[in-house]
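Components:
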Amino acid sequence: MKFIHTADWHLGKLVHGVYMTESQREVLHQFVDIVAEEKPDAVIIAGDLYDRSVPPTDAVELLDEILFKINVELKTPVIAIAGNHDSAERLSFGSSWYKHSQFYLAGKLTNSFTPIQIQGINFYMVPYAEPGVVRQLLEDESIHSHQDAMKALIGKIEETLNPNEPNVFIGHAFVLGGKTSDSERVLSVGGSGCVGVELFEPFSYTALGHLHSPDAIHHSKVKYSGSLLKYSFSEAKQKKSISIIEMDEKGNFSHRYRSLNPTYDMREIEGYLEELLDPQFYEKERTHDYLKITLLDEGALIDPMNKLRQVYPNVLHLEKKIDLTDVRKKDSYQVIHSKKKSEIELFEQFYMEMTTAEFTLEKKEAMAEIIEKVLKGAEER
Amino acid sequence: MKFIHTADWHLGKLVHGVYMTESQREVLHQFVDIVAEEKPDAVIIAGDLYDRSVPPTDAVELLDEILFKINVELKTPVIAIAGNHDSAERLSFGSSWYKHSQFYLAGKLTNSFTPIQIQGINFYMVPYAEPGVVRQLLEDESIHSHQDAMKALIGKIEETLNPNEPNVFIGHAFVLGGKTSDSERVLSVGGSGCVGVELFEPFSYTALGHLHSPDAIHHSKVKYSGSLLKYSFSEAKQKKSISIIEMDEKGNFSHRYRSLNPTYDMREIEGYLEELLDPQFYEKERTHDYLKITLLDEGALIDPMNKLRQVYPNVLHLEKKIDLTDVRKKDSYQVIHSKKKSEIELFEQFYMEMTTAEFTLEKKEAMAEIIEKVLKGAEER
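Structure:
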């Protein structure tokens, strides 16, 4: 039995203010071609189909188009779960109809732990859910962390799981020790959000979503497929792919990657402004890639972004390499106040990720006040 | 052949800041019971399934639940189109899967005018679309108004329509002369948005959505079903219902209503505060209805809303009956400046309807400035 494992499509994603939809469309068409060629018995999507609960309409249309091609035109069963970026309720709409054509979509976590059976393999779908939701669902007051929640859920599955059959777990979680990228949203503010890899021991294969690197963890049976595209510059050196698994009736499997290659790569370059604008240099470059450019120049430059965009239209981020001694000088205040600073910074990052709006000075001040109160309260307890 | 005609469910609707979801759920369960009892060959929903393009998640779950009961559990074909309140793209998601179980959902208007055939009747689905969208779709530069658009669309349908068969048109439009209510969103700012009833002549029956009264127009073959519930006090005296049509192979049909009865009605009452708060009065009243209360008292009253809500928990709107001579005095300024005043008022109404946010003084001033500029420009032309 052969299945494809993918995750973290993040349709509708904005990277530094630029919609990735066209690159997503391109790579998803490559994905459809791979499905047509590999003829798997199932395609698994382990969460974060969309980048947010209300994605832009062209992302909605793209997902509809791609899933229709795979499921209806290529007659391939699809098993998909919601991730932390998806709206469980919105994604669930219509799932009762889809299953008639073997498109199994789990948006909201339910109390039913019956697997989907395809060609002798049991697929357990566990969509992303907050620990509080799992606590309520399982009526288990002892559930507080993601670790507690996952342990309880797998405990439920184990009540009926037959260990002599091949069992595949499909989940969306941050497995302990996994390598993170800048484009994953933290699962827990204040807690680790992590779950231990040992929890997945009962399964022949665990198909995970959430971390964006295909080698976020190294484990023989628990794997991330990685995201569809690079969604942050911290992923610039990753190779994006999907995983192809062939499993026998005992749950033994082989695993290989097939890469996805968008026309425009996301990468970082470094140099002096003059050098980067020199045709001798850029003629050898893939100038339309999504770029983070680090300028080595010292002193002031006149409108460097505008000049660079004449040559590199998709510059997403520009920065100057700052002398380390400078940073130390500037940061002396920050270091002293590092505790307070880091909370507001964390929130700022979180806010911008959630809303893509600017975190203005007024907002910052209001939040700083709240954090101060909370910290004061914590000290007093 | 028997079919049910309904429209304007407006799931997720807020009336005076109160979600109607629970009343909608109640009435939709009555609707499901009627479907189970009548056993129609099809259920038609002529647009505005949701109240807005991104409805609240409980509205999404309610629609999913109800359509599943009707289409899958009761095995009744469903034909639904998007109205002006729906997001065509979001509503369309999954429609390719639904049609396998005879759930036909047209979100976006397409260039295909092939009818759905059920039991010898041809159902033509024409989801709501702006004239500009129709102009582009049909590549017909002469389309400017809703009348132009509808005429062109029906022209397209007529190219292949067989007048010897029973043909049903399903659309979402404002038919000329139709009686409006306060809860319908205007289709055209600046134009009438109307279409002539004569356009629908080629059809045996025209199942319309948009106007909320089941007798918005009186025509033997062109009909509104009316909305699911009363959504404004201007509808307080309407009787809400669904239409049951039985049609023969020649397109002749009988038409009858079945009423929908929510536990809490929406209605207006009038009286003196003291009288309304008197147990002798309110013990005979259905005090939990959604109410607009008009107070007859003169002079100041202390916190009347709060007092009234102790007895009538669902007061949605409170006003005082003002002496007509007072109004004339106050409005003398307005009458003189009636032209400018009415545009900003129209916009204010539109703004609050679209966003449910407050139209603050700053917003009003900014808009007044724009209107003034536009009017000045118009005078100069």
